[in-house]
Amino acid sequence: MEGSIDERVLAATRAEVVAFGLRRATMTSIAKRAGIGRATLYRRATSLDELVRDALVDDYARMAGELADVAHAAGERTTRADIVRLARAILEKLSQDALLRALLDHDPELLLPYLVDRLGRSQEILVAGFENALREAQLEGSVRAADPRVLAVGALQALTPFVVSRRVLESVAPHEMWLDEAAHLLDAYLAPKEPA
């Protein structure tokens, strides 16, 4: 099998949860998919929940890397329009992420603490990426003056329903329309205040 043990374990975790849901997935099946022994897997993680969280963190880290890329594209300073465009693209990717969709469909209680109680590692990764991009856009002048972390967390909390409530939203209007609405919401949230 190709890839590091870690890459294979995370890929196997995603495949297992997507195929069977969290309740029916097993560490034994994940080890088998990854081509490693159970003992090796248990040295990597002590539970299936831990593996799922690690897989989500890996997915979010990839998206945060895209945030970093846009913050330094073409050597120009990041603008609010860049941030809004990328946020829309990330919402689209999260909406299509097979692991996240499987959790929302079959095991939403695993995600509940990160919606109502605290930010998880995966959310913190996105917040850090947004925070850096927002700081650059503030220097450029297209994002209002405010604590970049507050803006980043506020944006994350405002946009989360566009992913987790996709079925509700799509009962009213098509997904593309909701992505446009999310972009509009973020753009207005970040825009500098007009002089009175």
From TrEMBL:
Annotated DNA-binding residue span(s): 26-45
Keyword DNA-binding attributed: yes
Keyword DNA-binding: yes
Domain HTH tetR-type: 3-63
SUPFAM superfamilies the record matches: Homeodomain-like
Matching PROSITE patterns: HTH_TETR_2 (PS50977)
Keywords: DNA-binding
Name of this chain's protein: TetR/AcrR family transcriptional regulator
Organism: Dermacoccus profundi
